[in-house]
Amino acid sequence: MKSETMARYATGLLLLGGLAAIATAWGFQLVGGFVPCKLCLEQRIPYYAGLPLAALALLLMVRGRTSLAVLALLLVAAVFAYGAGLGIYQAGAEWAFWDGPNDCGGGSAAPSSAADMLKTLQATRIVSCTEASWRLMGLSFAGWNAVASAGLAVLALLAALLLKRGGNKASVKA
Predict the structure, then answer these.
(1) What is the rounded distance in angstroms from the CA atom of residue 38 to the CA atom of residue 89?
(2) For residues 169 and 155, what is the distance between their CA atoms, to the nearest angstrom?
(3) In angstroms, how far apart are the furthest CA atoms of the chain?
(4) CA distance linking residue 95 with residue 89, whole number of Å
(5) pLDDT tens-digit profile of 12-71?
């Protein structure tokens, strides 16, 4: 199989994996009732930036703009490596390996009136960045995000390398 085709498959897998990861986060929030903390919300930003960049890279590949596609994939890798770092930071804070942020807590917006303040305070659940609300096989949401983000970063690097290798072969043949 040609390396350009393999790069397209890797990028497609990156898109599907990233969409599955962010959809899972939203599912746990909307269906499961898990309220995300500040760091949890921050860990979603790489998906919001990286997935459109990956889609752009795929479009550039289809249009034959190999150099730009490689650049986009390298940016995607950097974005998801940053996301993996955020996940590692929060997971380490949850295990008390290091301190988490001092300003991390969740909840809803300010009440619309003073009368609603007591109800809002009673109903608001503060979510700490340093306490895991769920674990699977020892990993919290943050830990699983670190794994997913690192995997997506590796896929983006692999796709970029495959594309670069295919582009170099094409220029050698010409």
Answers:
(1) 13
(2) 21
(3) 76
(4) 10
(5) 999 999 999 999 888 878 887 778 888 888 999 999 999 999 999 999 998 988 899 999
Q: Please give the backbone phi and psi of residue 152, each rounded to the nearest 5 degrees, phi first.
A: -65, -40
The amino acid sitting at 32 is G
Apex CA 95: angle with CA 90 and CA 96, to 5°?
90
Q: How far apart are CA 156 and CA 56, in angstroms?
A: 12
Distances (CA, A) of 62 to 5, 9, 65: 10, 12, 8
Report domain extents, the chain. 3-173
For residue 140, the surrounding DSSP H or E stretch is: strand 139-140
pLDDT in tens, 83-136: 999 999 888 888 778 877 777 754 444 555 666 666 655 555 556 766 667 666
Q: Is 138 left (phi over 0), alpha (psi -120 to 50) or beta?
A: left
Q: Which residues pair with 135 in a beta bridge?
A: 140
pTM of the model: 0.76
Question: Residue holding tokens 């997935």?
Answer: 51
Q: List the one residue out of 83, 13, 22, 15 whose CA is nearest residue 54.
A: 15
Q: How far apart are CA 31 and CA 143, in angstroms?
A: 21
